[in-house]
Design a protein that fits this description.
With 278 residues, the protein is of the alpha/beta class. The chain contains 11 helices and 15 strands. The protein has a single domain, classed as Metallo-beta-lactamase, Chain A, CATH 3.60.15.10. It has helices at residues 34-37, 49-55, 77-83, 96-100, 102-105, 110-115, 183-194, 213-235, 240-247, 253-257, 264-271; strands at residues 2-7, 10-19, 22-32, 39-41, 63-65, 88-91, 125-126, 132-134, 139-144, 153-157, 162-166, 177-178, 200-203, 209-210, 262-263. Helix 7 (183-194) runs antiparallel to helix 8 (213-235) and helix 9 (240-247) crosses helix 11. The protein is globular. Bound molecules: zinc ion (ZN). Zinc ion (ZN) binds at residues 68, 70, 148, 167. The site of zinc ion has 4 residues, from loops.
């Protein structure tokens, strides 16, 4: 399923697998419009790739930037690169081996295959922190923001005040985390983007926000406060399960769906530096 919405020169493309007539587990791509720019930020999941290609049939695409290599952000890379000869795919250096060999480098749990599917391989070119990506009308600064994944980056357009945050910032108060995420790196990365004078924040899912400074500050304060409480209980000798029950609220559906891969326990473990990917 694909839904499209315009924000001036930016087209937001919400993409999801269609199951029983509804889109499930949405992810978002953004297109810098017009014949002049031809830049797409992220490509959705493999299940929605045919719909994205159809929606972009008349767009003279020249470049794709992947904010990171999770399968719901690189799913149409391969088909797009086949259709557009010379299409450049830009990503963090750590992302490139995953783009080349998604199945070998990023094995997917069954729930991820069902929700988003296996991406096809694609070929990328590395971006460095601080580099400017120039289109005809815009300049996007690359900001390295690890934590959600080791290869995560954000993009900032200083003239327009646009900030594309991938999955680093999606709003809300997190009560769970996926295996492999580093919550302290996420907080450091959030502080990095919060220092920018952004006027509009375009996330990798959830709603677009104007004047996002306050929302970013609130998110950082919430995550830091939660981390202090986790560490305090840990110093008292409380076990991980006890900390989960004391601080993270009741069971969540996502924990059952992902067989604990995305869970309250994983968030506590990440605060304790013990949340390695399995
Ligand atoms: Zn992600």
């Amino acid at each position: 399923m694909l839904k499209s919405h315009s924000y001036g020169e930016i087209t937001r493309l919400d993409l999801a697998r269609t199951l029983w007539g509804r889109g499930r587990y949405w992810t978002t791509a953004y297109l810098l419009n017009g014949d002049q720019d031809g830049l797409l930020i992220d490509t959705g999941c493999a299940h929605s790739a045919p719909e994205l290609l159809s929606a972009l049939a008349d767009v003279p695409l020249t470049r794709v930037v992947n904010t990171h290599t999770h399968e719901d952000h690189i799913g149409a890379n391969g088909p797009l690169q086949r259709r557009h000869a010379g299409l450049e795919i830009l990503a963090h250096p750590l992302a490139l081996p995953v783009l080349t060999d998604p199945r070998g480098r990023q094995p997917l749990h069954p729930y991820r295959r069902v929700m988003w599917g296996w991406p096809e391989p694609s070929q990328g070119r590395p971006l460095t922190d601080g580099e400017m990506i120039e289109t005809a009308r815009y300049r996007l600064q690359v900001i390295y923001t690890p934590g959600h994944s080791p290869d995560h980056l954000c993009l900032y357009e200083p003239e327009q005040g646009w900030l594309f945050t991938g999955d680093l910032f999606v709003g809300g108060q997190d009560r769970a985390l996926r295996a492999g995420y580093d919550i302290w790196e996420i907080i450091a990365s959030l502080k990095r983007i919060a220092a920018l004078p952004a006027t509009t924040l375009f996330p990798g899912s959830a709603r677009v926000r104007d004047h996002p400074a306050e929302a970013l500050r609130e998110k950082i304060a919430y995550l830091e406060g939660l981390g202090e409480r986790v560490l305090a209980l840990h110093r008292e000798g409380r076990r991980v399960g006890e900390i989960v029950r004391a601080l993270m609220g009741g069971p969540m559906l996502i924990e059952a769906v992902t067989l604990g891969h995305f869970s309250r326990r994983r968030l506590v473990l990440s605060y304790l530096g013990m949340n390695a990917e399995e």
